[in-house]
Write a structure and sequence with these properties.
single chain, mainly beta, seven-stranded parallel sheet, 6% helix, Choice_anch_Q_dom, Pectin_lyase_fold/virulence
Length: 673
């Protein structure tokens, strides 16, 4: 079948479905890989001048596309590649990179172990590998990336950078426009954990394995044992809100952005003057907590890693306003002037105003209040601070203890007393958090991944706890992005809400949670689009398999201008699904019973899969047409159509291995031109 005709057919299908999907990326998965130079990884340990590790290979590919380490067009990120620790190590013996798209080849069947003690960067939390800031394909050849579980650890595998010139992510700070394709690879054991606090709200845990703001295509990939965990309150002694991936302090938790320029350390809390806590990425309107710029009419850009001021004003200045956060940075400014009446916390301003409790920037928790009046709200992913008037959580962040202590979307509410506990942070996207990006899953298996909400008053005094954080998207959480799931199996993933005296959080979307959430349609992505093709969403624990959500309002009570859409092409098996709030009714799914899958195992091919038992309803249940061509093989590289029709999901029963995996990319459909 000619690929140009396939492209026309797919584009026609997507246009009628009203979906914005990266068709070119999808076609590229099935096309035979072009013969070109590649960066060949030869070492699986630590990098040095004599090695070529995966981290060094990614860094070399990024540098080939930005040799001057320049600020990406449309962003304000200064020296973006220097925020990766791999830059300091150097490219070692790696060769073969060129401007444009690059291929990285891993040793066949290798296991690459990544340590929680040595993250490469801190874009939206600690990441094991350099940020994807260019177009990169990683050919896994059956290799596995693994992170050994360590209690309270935080480390995901990949962050894929946004394109600041894209209409979906305008002005986002970024290491560079990222476009990542993974083939025949396993990602096992990633954990992203929100920061905890004693009385402030917990931070959000977003994307256990991958945080994507660019273009992400997975083909023949298995993701398993990855976790996104919300931060808890009742932990430690801090009263500021927990950050996206750093515990709180009196000044609020930092993180969320890159490492401080010139070092590989995490972003730090703000100080009473200027800080170095980093926060990256521009946000859609309504994603910040009370006191952030996003409480207003338009989304603001994130910063260069610069933090705001410390957030504690003189104790005599009881009526001071909450200080402004640094530009895209950490916490509020020092209070200097009595009599101010603005209690809204921080903002994406260029420094503190006057303050008793600063609001967090992107990824940062709000500061507590030195004068006990008003705490700062959390930025995107940050918990609110603790005070008489508790700070509101940002998106996914718990509210700080005190009056008016609401959590952000998915975050728990704080108990309405200053001496009580804040709300738990949300866990979202156990395997993948897609934030305004484009995500395609082709012949993939996602199983055993979990989202877990943070608890309120963890181990604290009963009766003074707020509400727990929500657990949403056990495998995938989609926020204002495009997700295409094509002949894939998402089964056996889970969601577990956090607990608290005021109630537990929600737990939903064990396989996929798709959310449209933006107060201003012109400022960033205004839609969340999901397309399912001949795929399985099943056997989730703790909640329904699929949730699509379109709330009436976003943080601050602003009207939600974003729209969520869901399309189903071919035949899909979805055991349970829910369209809630203003979301349109879901399309019909022809199958809804148990698919009768075996546990994840080696069934041949480069990655583990879940085989249907004999008699499973998914066998020969796939639907093909001229508009929906079939891939030539299943996830294992075995012939896709072995019976009367293709099987639904990533595995084809009774199939034989194909010697040349992607001959033309698609199976021709009888009767089609």
């Amino acid at each position: 079948m000619d690929l140009s005709s396939v492209s026309h057919q797919l584009r026609s299908t997507y246009a009628r479905a009203g979906c914005a999907v990266a068709v070119g990326a999808l076609l590229g998965v099935f096309a035979a890989p072009a013969v070109q130079a590649a960066i060949v990884v030869t070492d699986t340990g630590a990098g040095s001048a004599l090695t070529c590790t995966l981290a060094q290979a990614i860094s070399l590919a990024n540098l080939a596309n930005n040799p001057g380490n320049a600020t990406p067009a449309g962003a304000t990120t200064v020296d973006p590649l220097s925020w990766s620790a791999a830059m300091a190590v150097g490219s070692g013996s790696c060769t073969g990179a060129a401007a444009g798209a690059n291929i990285i080849r891993l040793p066949a069947g290798a296991t690459i172990s990544l340590s929680t003690s040595s993250p490469d960067n801190f874009w939206y939390g600690p990441n094991a590998l350099p940020p994807i800031a260019s177009t990169i394909t990683i050919e896994g050849h059956g290799a596995a990336l693994r992170i050994a579980f360590v209690p309270a650890s935080r480390l995901r595998f990949f962050f894929v950078g946004a394109d600041p010139l894209s209409s979906a992510t305008p002005g986002y700070n970024t290491p560079g426009p990222g476009n990542l394709t993974l083939r025949n690879l396993t990602l096992d054991g990633g954990v992203q954990r929100g920061g905890s606090s004693r009385r402030g709200g917990g931070g959000a845990g977003l994307g256990g394995a991958i945080f994507n703001q660019g273009t992400l295509t997975l083909s023949g990939v298995t993701l398993t044992n990855n976790l996104a965990v919300g931060g808890s309150s009742g932990v430690g002694t801090a009263t500021g809100g927990g950050g996206m991936a750093q515990d709180g302090s009196s000044a609020g938790g930092g993180m969320g952005g890159p490492v401080s320029r010139g070092s590989s350390d995490a972003g730090q809390d703000g100080t009473l003057t200027t800080g170095v806590g980093g926060a990256g990425g521009g946000m859609a309107s309504g994603l910040g907590g009370r006191g952030s710029y996003n409480n207003g009419g338009t989304g603001g850009a994130g910063g260069n890693g610069g933090g705001g001021g410390g957030g504690s004003g003189p104790s005599s200045a009881f009526y001071n306003a909450g200080g402004g956060g640094g530009f895209g940075g950490g916490n509020g400014g020092q209070g200097e002037r009595a009599g101010a009446t603005d209690l809204t916390g921080g903002s994406f301003s260029n420094g503190g105003v006057t303050g008793t409790g600063g609001g967090g920037g992107v990824g940062a928790g709000g500061a507590s209040s030195g004068s006990s009046l008003a705490a700062g709200g959390g930025g995107f992913g940050g918990g609110g601070g603790n005070a008489f008037i508790g700070g509101q959580g940002g998106f996914g962040g718990g509210g700080g203890a005190g009056a008016e202590s609401a959590g952000g979307f998915g975050g728990g509410n704080g108990f309405q007393h200053q001496g009580a506990f804040g709300g738990g942070g949300a866990g979202m996207g156990g395997a993948i958090f897609n934030h305004g990006g484009s995500l395609s899953l082709v012949n993939c298996t996602l199983s055993g991944n979990s989202a877990i909400g943070g608890a309120s008053g963890f181990g604290g005094t009963p009766g003074l706890e707020g509400s727990g954080g929500s657990a949403l998207g056990g495998a995938v959480f989609n926020l204002n992005g495009n997700v295409n799931v094509y002949f894939s199996t998402l089964a056996g993933n889970g969601v577990t809400a956090g607990t608290g005296t005021l109630g537990a959080g929600a737990q939903a979307g064990g396989a996929i949670y798709s959310l449209a959430y933006n107060a201003v349609a012109a400022a960033g992505s205004s839609s969340a689009a999901l397309v399912l093709h001949n795929s399985i969403l099943a056997n989730s624990t703790g909640g329904v398999d699929l949730v699509v959500d379109q709330p009436a309002a976003v943080s601050g009570g602003l009207v939600n201008a974003a729209v969520v859409t869901t399309s189903a092409l071919g035949a899909n098996l979805v055991m349970s699904a829910l369209a809630q709030n203003g979301a349109a009714a879901l399309p019909a799914f022809p199958l809804g019973s148990d698919p009768s899958l075996t546990p994840l195992a080696d069934n041949g091919g480069p990655t583990q899969t879940m085989a249907p038992l004999s008699g499973s309803v998914v066998i020969d249940a796939g639907q093909a047409s001229c508009e929906i061509p079939l891939p030539s093989t299943d996830q294992r590289g075995y012939q896709r159509v072995a019976g009367a029709a293709a099987d639904i999901g990533a595995y084809e029963s009774d199939a034989v291995e194909v010697d040349s995996v992607f001959v033309d990319g698609f199976e021709a459909v009888a009767g089609c031109p």
